[in-house]
## 1
Amino acid sequence: MTTSPVKPRDLRDFYENPAVPVASGTPRSLRQARMLARALGPAADHPQTVLDIGCGDGTAAATAAPLLPGHRVIGVDWSQDALRRARTRIPYAVRGELTGGGLPFAAESADAVLFSEVIEHLVDPDAALDEIRRILRPGGHLMLSTPNLAAWYNRALLLAGVQPVFSEVSLRGIHGRPGKEVVGHLRLYTPRALREFVAASGFTVVRLEGAPFHGVPRPLRPLDRLACARPQLASILLLHARRT
């Protein structure tokens, strides 16, 4: 068992702990950024606003920015520690949260939302998608990524009676599964569940793709890249949806 360095009192304490990973895997971020660039097209005379909600240390936004020339990318997070790190990578990063008072943006003010590796950490994902739908203009783009509960290796682990990768039973330590870091996952999705959930929240699903997981052991990474061809087996799910 691997334990976290600090025993958190609640989720806010957990995510304000600098030892908790908030970086986003570059291979996944790059694939997601390319999906968004294809969806938005060139800025031309109509620069668009992209919000990276739950931006963490700014990795995803910084990866996306060079592929979105002319568009405005703004990072959003409620963790002050994450925002301090994000501001070293991206020019705009503001504090905001999906629940409680909501995000500091007017209704229908954003053209696209990056929602990278966030939904699996939320107590109330329904309210989160409601708030994202509020700030997106009609037809606006949602680019969501999250771990796949049904990843190829998780299927084998479950057959062996082992807790799946990405799943966690405690904020204080790893129990019964491979891995070394506690990252605070509360919810996991299969491709079918993610599609149904997003559609039920007022979005039209456009595309679902797979991405590799940077934490897969090196000898298994070629297999993990191959699995991306079938999102049902991929480590990470990349979903593109539009506000209906």
Note: Helices lie at 11-16, 26-40, 59-64, 80-86, 125-135, 152-159, 191-200, 221-227.
## 2
Amino acid sequence: MKKVVLITGASKGIGSAIAKRFATGEYIVVINYNKSEAPALSLSNEIIATGGTAMCCKADVSNATDVKNMISEIINKFSTVDILINNAGISYEGLLSDTSDEIWNNIIATNLTGVFNCTKAVLPYMINQKKGKIINISSIWGICGASCEVAYSASKSGVIGFSKALAKEVGPSGVNVNCIAPGIIDTDMNNNLTEQDKKDFVEELPISRIGNAKDIADTAFFLCSESADYITGQVLAVDGGYSI
């Protein structure tokens, strides 16, 4: 029987790459999106066209009611959620003094509260079946912080603490919780970087290249496999060695 994997923020970037990676295995891929309906539908059609199984679910992960409705829709159709990948996130670059209350609240709501909402909604089903995998996408800036990205760094650091604590809490129930901390990845979120910015960053990396979404997707796929059944509460920095 195919396992059900829910990927939040899966319409593009890292989320899309993760969806495509799981589509190549024995998984039913649930593509969550909020505003990017067209890319989400296109991705779902692409997966189905290549022989996979996929469906789209619209939900704002920062909204608990939206999330509960999404999970109910998935359960009604597939009976369970075996894997949750909390990928949805937003960023903001600017001085803390220029960070409005609205910006701060939106980032925390999406990046951290969204993880809480989705995890809380799926956990009862995982605990009931005594197995499940949860992968939370943090950031290298959640480990070491980024100047002019205080709100983003704080939210992603919170995801790391959330993951470690939850791993201890639900491990006895057969649920693994791990965290991936990507470095600079070539996605739309980093379109603000100039070519010189990228060049300067690459010079700091032992592996001399910017990361790509497939690097993160492959890591998530491994952590959700049986080969990673004895791994929980870990933060895996996929950053080309930046954090060494």
Note: The chain has one domain: 3-183+212-238.
## 3
Amino acid sequence: MINIQFAKRLQPLQSNVFADMDRAKALALAAGQQLIDLSLGSSDLPAEAHVIEAIAQSLHDRTTHGYLLFNGTQGFREAAANWYEKKFGIKVDPQTEVLPLIGSQEGTAHLPLALLNPGDFALLLDPGYPSHAGGVHLASGQIYPMPLREENGFLPVFADIPAPVLAQSRMMVLSYPHNPTAAIAPLSFFQEAVAFCQQHNLALVHDFPYVDLVFTATGDWGKEGHKDMGTRRYGDNSLPTSSSQSLVPSILQADPEKSISIEFFTLSKSYNMGGFRIGYAIGNAQLINALRQVKAAVDFNQYRGILNGAIAALTGPQSGVKTAVATFQQRRDAFITALHRIGWNVPTPQATMYIWAKLPSRWSQNSIEFCTQLVKQTGVAASPGAGFGKSGEGYVRFALVHEPSLLETAVERMAKFLNSN
């Protein structure tokens, strides 16, 4: 048998938190467990009817059946630019400052190919989303993990980055509201990030999938000290500009000239279109063009019908977004209440579809073993914090992708597991 030699860049990609848990779930199912999967942030809610109708109508249009090049995406790019301007009050050129993507993950994974030479550093959040690191490894870059600590509101401390690392760095990746910690960041934090990246000539990348999944008027803002989460080092400047319709800031509100910044959006969370794989980048024209060059070497674009559905989502009624937010807020409250009932006192997040829970002391240094044994013994699947980075150890992430009654059943099973272990 021929011994095929593979590139060294594949070595760091051999382990992935989602793939590892997928194997553990398969073993649990094979052993007869009834699975409650809280490990993957894939929304169980449906896309809106007017979105599905736009895609369905496209199927009968034979002109949509061919390759779709950049100029054919003009309508989608205009819809994205208009959506952004309406939401954040910043004008965007759909010709030079918007790029369609096959989900924001494609953008964050491919952009390092346009920015890094072998050995260059990327500054990444730790813990953080796995594709951010994967893209750096594929570009033969180095990763400097910026630790996220609870005492800092899960925000990085830029002053802690060593000067020799900064001298070799080409990009910084942020993502707030944050996966997995569910932390939010104030506008003043983004302003500091922009100034820091301008000073050190870094491209500033912001992954922004949870722009709409922010909870308000819950009566618990400030409960258990959460009013300070994300603002402890940044005063009270935590709101976007007055022209914004968003409850959380965009990186471009801190960099309105788009001098160094690019932001990635997806329709997976706000519009429940994860399986359709549609997202886009907005920002600095040079960064957009560089990413476009990489993308052109890898693929064309999605089926035009999917873009038509995305246009319908961005320009049509937004009641479905509000329904999704209310649904995840209800699930959050039910899950948190059930955890508190069994004595697991975890913080109440203000955004995302996740609960980031500190593990009991018995498991504080082995989140992978906790999740493996949990699914094996109870059928409840969660994501180990260590799978998101070294600083995630000691935590576990639960995705709120089931109805409240099933979430409460999951907590009941976990209570038995914790008591028996």
Note: The radius of gyration is 21 Å.
## 4
Amino acid sequence: MGKTLFDKIWDAHVVKTIDGGREVLYIDQHLIHEVTSPQAFNGLKNRGIGIRRLDKILATADHNVPTINQHLPIDEPLSRLQVDTLQKNCDEFGVTLYNLGHENQGIVHVIGPELGITKPGMTIVCGDSHTSTHGAFGNIAFGIGTSQVEQVMASQCLILTRPKTMRINVEGTLAEGVTAKDIILYIISQLTAAGGTGYFVEYGGSTIRSLSMEERMTICNMSIEMGARGGLIAPDETTFDYVKGRPNAPEGVKFEEALSFWKTLKSDSDATFDKEYSFHADDIGPMVTYGTNPGMGMRISDLIPDGGGRASFDKSLEYMGFRSGQSLNGQVIQNVFIGSCTNSRIEDLREVAEFVKGKKKADHIKAYIVPGSYKVRQEAIQEGLDEIFEEAGFVLRQAGCSACLGMNEDKIPKGEYCISTSNRNFEGRQGPGARTILASPIMAAAAAIEGKIVDVREMIRGNGKA
């Protein structure tokens, strides 16, 4: 019987099988940041041991960092403490750190791919749930807890139970105005926020194969929002072209050798998955969420469904100030956030710039764009995107996680709505009492221009006005 891509990679990294069917898995790359690493470093100090593979660990500051005036000392006490602690720990243990001001600094799941650290066939972990982003390159990437961060630091291995496998196929051509973000929000809305629990998901089909690497990263990034352990996409020419020439990619003969291996990374034609689903691009439209988990999403043309009397559903709508049967087309908002490890890459910024060029945001809207890395910001400036944003009334800030999770000063005021390109819409995620509506970058941009949620397709058809 054939093997899935997931099983091929997993089996190649199993060091040994232990009692209870669990397996010791070798980890190729460990990424760390300021939030989940301090306790792990302290654990090593208490045990008097060092890091097993310094060449396989990389640190950056991203979660708590301010997105303005990064050249100045951090004002917020907790953020300053965490970033300073990361610097001290990395200095003490000899870990490479891309801190504020470094040309490689940025959101951990943005800098890995852009620096060529993320390559096909790897196992990659980080103390951050959205590590699944890296699966877009055809590897096993997943988030781990702080105790596991220490375990990888000490041994370069993890003791794990193998997840089940799921295949999700999407076929067809996306309509204009429909994006990768809409694909994954649609899938989650159909399978629910728990539909992938216990599984590692492989995405396939003609729609997925047509996506750029940045779009594939958006898909894999949100795999965990349906409860999955992670997501991956088989590498192809799009993948190889993206990796080639990046700073940490192999060169010359070594690249050709790596390429020969990468081309074997696909599920066999007779591979069996524990569960499979199929969707068609024609059924997917611009998506928005209406509740307080990513599974509570709908097409902008739909109405908020009835919760069937479920208390949790009713509580979610009450928090959001919505009701069953309501349309969100025309819903007034106050904030727009374009950023996060889901949608903060240069391709996202280019798409937004092209859409808002020559337009102005609504006067009451606070709109800011937070690039995923120092390099993305510099590239945006070199291309003149910053001038387009400024003329449209958008603020281009500095790299960081920002209002995705509100761990710095970038918080949404209580009771206000924010249409956000991030990945989670939990209660208080973007600040106490904040109301988050997830959407694609161009849906967010359209809302900023109109001052309310609109169907971006109407603006495209109407040459700029809904």
Note: The longest strand covers residues 164-171.
